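Appendix C: a fully annotated inverse folding record. The material below is reproduced so that readers can follow the format used throughout the book. The structure is listed first as tokens, followed by the designed sequence.
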């Protein structure tokens, strides 16, 4: 038993094994920091994009004023679309981690992220379609005031 303990303790403190553990921990920390940075980037990029687009679309009778605030809407929509590669990056980096809990779980997570990205992209593209729609309204003579105001 004493021989086994000495052998295990020698292996536990061998330079090769220590270097391998250190490299593994360094790689894992880098991986974790990258995932965390992507989460923060996603929050910031989508949050700023949402703020910019809602400042334009939240105004009363916003279709008549979109042409005046077109650059704000386009920049906000671009930031919303920039969230797409961030979410895809998170899914790709998380896949091996989630795969440890099961292949089905990992594939379900990946499928959910793909659905999320597609729906967010369609929503952002719909915001971009407001620009030509408002331009047609301005060309047609502007918005008529409603009888309820």
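Designed amino acids, in order:
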């Amino acid at each position: 038993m004493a021989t086994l303990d000495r052998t295990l303790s020698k292996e536990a403190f061998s330079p090769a094994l220590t270097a391998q553990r250190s490299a593994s921990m360094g790689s894992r920390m880098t991986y974790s920091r990258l995932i965390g940075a992507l989460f923060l980037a996603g929050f910031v990029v989508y949050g700023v994009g949402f703020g910019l687009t809602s400042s334009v679309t939240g105004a009363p009778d916003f279709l008549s004023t979109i042409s005046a605030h077109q650059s704000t809407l386009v920049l906000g929509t671009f930031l919303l679309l920039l969230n797409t590669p961030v979410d895809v990056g998170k899914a790709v980096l998380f896949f091996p981690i989630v795969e440890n809990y099961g292949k089905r779980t990992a594939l379900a997570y990946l499928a959910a992220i793909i659905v999320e990205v597609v729906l967010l992209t369609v929503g952002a593209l719909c915001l971009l379609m407001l620009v030509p729609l408002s331009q047609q309204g301005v060309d047609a003579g502007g918005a008529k005031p409603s009888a309820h105001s």
